[in-house]
Amino acid sequence: MRWSDSIEAPFRQPITLPRVESILAGALSFLGREAARIVLPSWCAVCERELPWRGRTASCCASCWSALPKIAGVKCDSCALPLAGESAVRCIECQLDPAPLSWCDAWGHYAGGLEKVLHAFKFGKHDFLDHPLAALLDDTLRARGDLAFDAVVPVPMSRRKERRRGYNQAELLARALSDRIGIRCDMLLAKTADGPTQSLLPRERRAANVRHAFRATRDAAGKEILLIDDICTTGETLRACAKELVRAGAARVCAITVAKAS
User: What is the pLDDT of residues 46-102, one digit of tens each?
Assistant: First the structure.
C-alpha cells in the first residue's frame, strides 16, 4: 500500500485522537523520507553518478532521462513491435494470431537507460518513479488521440508476489496515469494462478504460463478499458488479460506499456 492510500483510509472511519496521532506520525515519516532523499547522497539509476537534488527526474539524472530510448517510428498495432515503414500495420505473428486488443502501444525500447529505470522501478523499490513513467504513457496516449475509456486497469500480480515485492508496479503506473488523465483506475482483473515469472521463461512457454492465470470481474461488462503494464515482451500477458476482459463482456480493450522488448 502506498502512503497516499494509507493516509486516506483512516478518514473513512470515525476520527479519534489516537487516529489523528497515527495519521500525523505517518505524515511525518513520509516527509522525513522525502527530506532524506534530498539531503543525503543518492545515485542515478542509469549512469550511477551522484544525483544533484535539482535537475533530476526521481532517481534519474536529467541527461539520462532525456536520453531514454523512445520508439520513434511505426509500431505493430497489435503488440507495439517497432516496424519498418510509414503506416501502422501488424507484424507477421500478429497477422497470423492477433491479440484481442483494439490496439497496443508502448513509449520506448526496453533497452539501455529505460531498461535500467524499469528495473529500478520494478525490483529496486524505486516506486517514486510511477508518476514520471506515467507521464510517458500520457504522452503516448495523447499522440494517439485516444482517451475514450471508462477505466484504466493494471495487469494484476499474485498476492504472494505483491507481498514479497511490496507493490504491483503496474498498479502504481495505472493509478498515476489515472490521476493525469482523469479516468478511473479500476481493479477489474485478479491473478488467480501464481506460476513462474514470465521473464524467466523461454518464449514458447509463456503463453501456457498465463493462459488461465487471470479472472475479470463482472464490472468489466460494457466498458472500454485501457490495460496497463510496465513492459511488453512477447505480449502473452496482455493477450491473456485482454481475452479475460473480453470474455467478461468488455466493449473494447486497448493496452499501453512503458517499454516494448524486441
Answer: 999 998 888 899 999 999 999 999 999 899 999 999 998 777 688 898 999 889 999
Buried b (16+ CB within 10 A) or exposed e, 114-133: bbbbbebbbeeebbebbbbb
Residue with the three cell numbers 488523465: 181
- On whether the CB atoms of residues 195 and 210 are closer than 8 A, the answer is yes
State phi, psi for 52 to the nearest 5 degrees: -75, 155
Q: Report whether 158 contacts 194 (CB < 8 A).
A: yes
Q: Which amino acid is at 123?
A: F
Strand partners, 106: 257
Do 229 and 200 form a contact (C-beta atoms < 8 A)? no
Q: How far apart are the two ends of the chain, measured CA to CA in Å?
A: 32
Question: Rounded to two decimals, what is the model's pTM?
Answer: 0.80
